[in-house]
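[#protein-structures] MJ: dropping 30S ribosomal protein S1 here for a structure pass
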Amino acid sequence: MKSNSTPSPAENLSFSRDDFAKALEAQSYGFEKGQIVRGKVYEYTSDGAFVDIGGKSPAFLPVREASLQGITDLSVLLPLQSEREFLIIREQDAEGQVTLSVKQLEIKAQWDRLLDLQDSGQSVQVRVSGVNKGGVTVDVEGLRGFIPRSHLIDRNNLEDLIGQLLTATFIELDQNRGKLVLSQRLASQSARFSEIELTQLVEGTISSIKPFGLFVDLGGTSGLLHIKQISQNYIESLTNLFKIGQPIKAIVVNLDEGKSRISLSTKVLENYPGEMLENMAEVMDSAEARAERARKNLLGS
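AK: finished. structure tokens for 30S ribosomal protein S1:
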């Protein structure tokens, strides 16, 4: 008579090494390119480090992806058993190994920081790293940027700028295209603009003569002395009175921060209508004393 005994629980739970390997192979760890994971460095190699991120195979961090600044000794930046975040930049290979990067995380953080600086209108220190026909390439906190020649203060001796630190402001930031364009000229204008106050007496040189007025170089920025603000009397021709490069003093009568526009006036310095036309030298020589009176009149005090 045959026995109808059933297998014991232990027999039902028998699990061979092959079965375990197959189950492990079928296990999906969900690691994808672009995913941020935490892991621990546990072994160095000649060209990188192995990192435990909880996968079936150790992940690999190439030395070139260890830092935005570029290093050769991983132990300085990533000691053994140190834990931190990594970005997966290559999905699992046949062995289940993914490739990691710290550098790409730092690049993303830098772009985010620069975007914040741009939004707040702040300038940044950059170092000139190279020269081309259009301008200079610069290092912007580890990222590569570009300043067009037209946005440099010194546009003639570009080679002499290599290695120098410049203050620049942002013109265009496009992380998707890796485009980072800056302006030293606008940063200088912005800095100078912030130093100028309404009713302040400023001194500059005439940089351009137009039918409607004079553009005055104020050392880093420029102001407009409109023809109607030069004198209380009518002026027929500006070129008969002024020349490019001529020094001039004027009162700031309007500031438009949004458009970085500075409006100037010499009319308010006159003791009588037409004095700027008849005796400009006297108005300029005593401009400081006249400025106090003009300031009170403009402020209504």
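MJ: nice. Residues 103-119 form the longest helix (17 residues).
AK: one more thing. Residues 163 and 282 are 47 Å apart (CA to CA).
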